[in-house]
Write a structure and sequence with these properties.
Elements: E1 2-6, H1 9-26, E2 31-34, H2 41-53, E3 62-65, E4 67-69, H3 80-87, E5 99-100, H4 109-122, E6 128-131, E7 153-156, H5 159-165, E8 178-181, H6 184-188, E9 192-197, H7 203-211, E10 229-234
The site of 2-amino-2-deoxy-6-O-phosphono-alpha-D-glucopyranose has 14 residues, from helix 5.
Length: 241
């Protein structure tokens, strides 16, 4: 794994944006896998700045998000559909038909998961996948115990993940307990992976990912088996290495 150590969140965001920007500009990556959560917010801000400063058109780029909460409609403020619109899509010209996320309100979730897998295949696979990491080592919504060969499916969220993500919800509002997520098998088929990590609450998971035994108990350890992964992490996230 290629590790880029940076000072802090700001530098991680700038370097992560530069990584994706270069992928897009080179023409190498036409299908970009995107992530949500608190970590990529700064990256998207820098990416928008770079795209707009260079007057880059992205009409031939497709984006494929990792996951969506079950039960939240596309326009729910806490849905990942809205997150992507607020942080990225509203500022750039990727056509709406090219922005792909799983639906959180499908009538038939088995079919929705199959549709999403088919879509990724039809696009020719993900060229570059952006990832964050959960404090328990989850990637996308693949919690500890998720199969390494898993495909897009419905999952239950770990109590720790529900707790961590509750900070984005209003008091009294129920945090979804399930999600549709790309599987680890799906993610591992990406041509290239770039993970960003910041803060000391990620340090144990980052250490396990880099130096631990490759085991489904810590989903991120699977990345040791991918041959093109770049980790951009700040000093706090790397503090246990
Ligand atoms: C969420 C997302 C993941 C994300 C992770 C870390 O549950 N499904 O894709 O990487 O948790 O989130 P954060 O960046 O907010 O710490």
């Amino acid at each position: 794994m290629n590790i880029i150590q940076v000072q802090d969140y700001e530098e991680m965001s700038e370097q992560g944006a530069e990584f994706l920007f270069r992928e897009i500009m080179s023409g190498r990556s036409k299908v970009i896998g995107l992530a949500t959560g608190g970590t990529p917010v700064g990256l998207y801000k820098h990416l928008v700045e770079k795209i707009n400063a260079n007057e880059v058109s992205l009409t031939d780029v497709h984006t494929v998000n990792l996951d969506e909460y079950i039960g939240l409609s596309d326009d729910h403020p806490n849905s990942y559909h809205q997150y992507m619109f607020q942080n990225l899509f509203q500022y750039i010209d990727i056509p709406s038909a090219n922005r792909h996320l799983p639906s959180g309100t499908a009538a038939d979730f088995s079919e929705e998961c199959r549709r999403y897998e088919r879509l990724i295949q039809q696009l020719g696979g993900v060229d570059t996948q952006l990832l964050g990491i959960g404090a328990n080592g989850h990637i996308a919504f693949n919690e500890p115990g998720s199969p390494f060969d898993g495909r897009t499916r419905v999952v239950d969220l770990a109590p720790a993940t529900i707790e961590a993500n509750s900070r984005y919800f209003n008091e009294g509002e129920t945090v979804p307990s399930q999600a549709v997520t790309m599987g680890i098998g799906t993610i591992m088929e990406s041509g290239r992976i770039v993970m960003i990590a910041s803060g000391k609450e990620k340090a144990a998971a980052v250490k396990e990912m880099l130096t631990g035994e490759v085991t489904e108990d810590c989903p991120a350890t699977v990345l040791q088996k991918h041959d093109d992964v770049t980790l951009i992490a700040d000093a706090e996230a790397l503090s246990e290495i």
